[in-house]
Amino acid sequence: MSSRVGGRAVSGADTDRSPVSDADVCVVGAGPAGALVASRLAARGRRVVVLEAGPRFDPADRPQQMERSIGPVDGRGDIWGMGGDRDAYASTGDRFYPLNANRVKGVGGTTLHWQGMVYRLHEKDFEMDSRYGLADDWPIGYDDLRPYYAEAERELGVSGADDNPFGPPREEPYPLPAFPPSYSDSIFAEACEELEIATHSAPNARNSEPADGRSACVGYGTCQPVCPSGAKYDATVHVERAEEAGARVIDRAPVQRLAHDASGERLEAAVYATPDGVEHRQEADAFVLAAGGVEIPRLLLLSESEEHPDGLANRSGAVGRYFTEHLFAGAGGTIDRETRQNHVGFMTSESHQFYDHEEPVPGSIKLEFLNYAGPSPVEMALTGDTFGDELLADLREAYGNHLAVGALVEQLPRWENRITLDDSRTDDHGNPVPEIRWSVGDHARRTIERANEIQVAILEALDAEIEWVVGPDDTGPAAHHVGTTRMGTDPDESVVDPALRTHDLENCWIASSSVFVTGGALNPTLTIAALALKGAEHVDEWL
Amino acid sequence: MKLTRRDAVAALAAAGAVGTVGAGGLLARERLHGGDADSAETDENESSESVTLSETDTAMLAAVARAVYPSEVTGIEEFVETYSRGRIDRVRNDAYRGGVSEALEYVDDRARTWYGEPYLELDSETQASVLGEIGADRADPAPDGTDAERVRHFVVNEVLFALYASPAGGELVGLENPQGYPGGLDSYQRGPDT
Question: Residue B93, Cβ neighbours under 10 Å: how many?
Answer without folding.
Answer: 14
